[in-house]
Amino acid sequence: MKPATDHPAPRIALALLLLGTVGLTTAQETTEAPAPPVELSADTAEVNDATGVSIYRGNVILTRGRMEIIGAVMTVTTDENRELERIVVEGSPARYTETLPDAPTRQAEAPRMEYYASGPERIILLEGGRLWQGDNEVLGETITHYPAEQRTIAEGGQAEGGRVNVTVYPDSDESP
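and the corresponding structure tokens:
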């Protein structure tokens, strides 16, 4: 059904809401149980326990619970208790995947992304990103997704004329 107005704002708001409404997030999991371990594999690793900053290079794969982040270079920052704080990842593209129970997998990709484990938990797609779940998708120069808040903010860049692109498919009455 076509909306009563041709203005894209209601459709964009709906798409951003739909992308954040499904599933249990990593932040929600950690309030109910201890945080799952962080597992990393890479071609090389430089770990500095004194600063809490580690740099991984070459086919880097980070997994934590239902989340996986893949990239070419990954800088991981931990706090004084060795708890995950921030991940900066570069790739061609860098990829994020979150497997959700009873819902399509949430995925994202961008040339550069940042993941913050708290304060609040969020993933920021930079330099032109794509966030999608099932057939629903958001494209923009910068996309910030807050899984626990079920909220996404997208900004367009100059290449897109300052606009974002959002595609939302209405729910079907049929079960997959």
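(Above: one complete record from the training split.) The first helix runs from residue 9 to 20.
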